[in-house]
Amino acid sequence: MKYALEIEHLSKDYGSFRLEDVSFAIPGGTIMGLIGENGAGKSTTIKCILNLIRRDGGTIRVLGMDNLQEERSAKEAIGVVLDESTFHDTLRPTEVGQVLKHLYKSWDAPLFAQYLDKFGLPRKKTIKEFSKGMKTKLSIAAALSARPRLLILDEATSGLDPVVRDEILDEFLTFIQDEDHAVLISSHITSDLEKAADYVTYLHRGRVAVQGAKDELLETYGRLACAKADLERVDPALLVGRRVGQFGCEALVKDRRAFCRLYPELTVDRVSLEDIMVFTVKGDVQ
User: Fold this and answer.
1) What is the pTM of this model?
2) Which residues contact 75 (CB under 8 A, 6 or more apart)?
C-alpha cells in the first residue's frame, strides 16, 4: 500500500502542552479526518507536517519523502487551506493567480480559471468583498491549481453554510479519484467527516485516543441508554465513558456486538463521530 502521509511517534513539548507519540498514515486515494477538542494537538500536528515548527521527536514522510531532509520537494507536493484566507484583501482572484504562478513550479493557470468559474468567484471583485464561503473556495481553488498530491485543510470548512460545505466535500472526493492523491482534514464538524472521510484519527490531550477506518469505528462503537441500575451492573471494562443524569444514563460501548451478546436486554444504538468525541472527553468511567 502506498501512503501519501506517514507520521510515526511524533512529539512536541510546549511545556504546558505536549503532543505525544502521535502516529497515523493516510493511504493514497483516501481522506483522513483529524478530529479532537480545541487544544488537542490538531494544528500542532499540521504545523509539524509543514515544518512550520520544530518537532521534538518522530518522523514524517510525505509521499515517501522525509519532510525535513527533502523539505522543498515535499512542500511542492502539498496544497494547504487554512481557516482564514491568507491572501491580501486588496487582491482580486486573477491577481492571486499572477502571484502564485511564480511560487509553484506546477502552477496550472487554466485550471485555476476553471475553478474560479466553477465556484462562481467574480474576477473583478477584491477579496475583502468576498464572503467567508467565497474566500474558502478561492483558497481551495488556489491549492488545487498548484497540482498537489496531498491536500491539507486545517478547520477550513468551519463557519460555512451546509450547501457550501457539501460543494467543497464533493471537490475533495473528486480529487482522491486519483489514487496518488490524498486529503487530511482537521475539522470540528464531524458530520462532514462522516460523509467524506475514509479514516479518522481522534486526538485527545495530545495523544491518539481513537483511530481507524471510519465505517469500522461507527460499526464497532455503540451508544447505550439505560437506567442507573442497569448501568451499575454493566462491566465497566466494556465502556469508554458514561454520563449519569437525573432521568437516565448514557454510555459509549467499545464493542457493540459483543455487548449485545452479553446484555441482550439493553438497547445499544449506533453512534456518530461526535458521540465518540463527547464520551471520550466527558466520560467519567473509573
Assistant:
1) 0.90
2) 50, 51, 67
Tell me the β-bridge partners of 24: 7
Phi, psi of 80 (to 5 degrees): -125, 135
Q: Is the dihedral of CA 43, 47, 53, 54 positive or negative?
A: positive
Whole-number pLDDT of residue 282: 67
In angstroms, the CA 3 to CA 29 distance is 9
Please give the grid coordinates belonging to residue 238: 466494556
Q: Which run of H or of E encompasses 181? A: none
Higher pLDDT, 252 or 85: 252
Residues 45 and 55: their CA atoms lie apart, in Å, by 9
C-beta of residue 135 within 8 angstroms of C-beta of residue 93: no
The pLDDT value given to residue 284: 45
Interval 186-211 mean pLDDT: 92
pLDDT of residue 157: 78
What is the 8-class DSSP label of residue 63?
A: T
Pairwise CA distance, residues 45 & 19, whole Å: 8
The Cα-based distances of 250 to 136, 147, 220, 233, 276 in angstroms read 38, 47, 17, 14, 12
- Cα–Cα dist 41/25, whole Å: 16
How many Å apart are CA 171 and CA 5, to the nearest integer?
20
Which string of b and e fits 129-165 if b means at least 16 CB within 10 Å? ebeebbbbbbbbbbbbbbbbbbbbbbbbbbebeeebb
Strand partners, 26: 5
**3-state DSSP assignment of residue 82:** coil
Please report the sign of the dihedral spanned by the C-alpha atoms of residue 253, residue 257, residue 263, residue 264: positive
What per-residue confidence (pLDDT) applies to 224?
Answer: 95
Inter-CA distances, 126 with 12, 18, 121, 138, 226, Å = 39, 41, 10, 12, 56
